[in-house]
Amino acid sequence: MKDQIIEKIYEYSKQPYQKYFKKNKPWEIDQTALLHYPEGSLGFGLGNFLSKNHFDMQPKLEDHDIIHVLTNTGISVREEIGMQYYLLGNGKKSLYLFLVIASGTPFYLKEINYFMQQYKRGKKALPFHYLDFSKMLFTPIHTIQKTFNI
Predict the structure, then answer these.
(1) 12 pLDDT more than 80
(2) Of 39, 127, 51, 119, which is closest to residue 91 (Cα–Cα)?
(3) How far does the chain reach from its first CA to its final CA, in angstroms?
(4) 112, 115, 125 from 109: Cα distances, Å
(5) pLDDT in tens, 53-76
């Protein structure tokens, strides 16, 4: 039940967030094209992630799915909150991040150790949340992970 509440909050907040807070341009590539990138590349990894989870590209929110790929984070509500803790540890500060942490954590107090573990993982990684991933789609995932200690 709590997962469904959090998912509904996300669905209602996604469009205003995309429209009013995300200033970046949507990527001009689709999921099918991503699957034609070299195997092991960030582009292929993103296409595979989207396909495997039955997701579509979300304009202006492409980086979110890239972070899933780079950090090997799943898509459950618990993991989504954990990923925001990871990003906080990595130095990211955004309204969305703080809203997810503030609204999600009270529902998952039993997961606080997991969240703190993710925060510490993010602290150990070199800051990468600010990168323009659209220009890195041909780069091998493992190269990015190794370079930034992800």
Answers:
(1) no
(2) 127
(3) 32
(4) 5, 9, 25
(5) 999 888 778 999 999 999 999 999
